[in-house]
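Query structure, 83 tokens:
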């Protein structure tokens, strides 16, 4: 990891219920977080095909490289991208 500098903007806030594990917090709020990331610049690629009656599909989510500041509090976590 590298240190990132910048000013925070447009934060998203999730309730933590005394949980400090960011991965678990994001898993519990994945739809809201994906909508938030999409607004920041998520690229979605979807491909599907049918060959010999076999259907396959692939969805790729590409997040633009960006730094975030994460602040934990007793009742919530605030995630803010840096400009």
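Result returned for the query:
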């Amino acid at each position: 990891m590298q240190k990132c500098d910048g000013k925070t903007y447009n934060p998203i806030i999730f309730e933590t219920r005394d949980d400090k594990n960011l991965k678990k917090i994001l898993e519990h709020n994945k739809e809201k977080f994906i909508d938030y990331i999409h607004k920041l610049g998520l690229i979605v690629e979807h491909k599907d095909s049918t060959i010999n009656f076999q259907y396959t599909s692939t969805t790729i989510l590409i997040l633009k490289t960006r730094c975030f500041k994460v602040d934990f509090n007793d009742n919530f976590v605030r995630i803010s991208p840096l400009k």
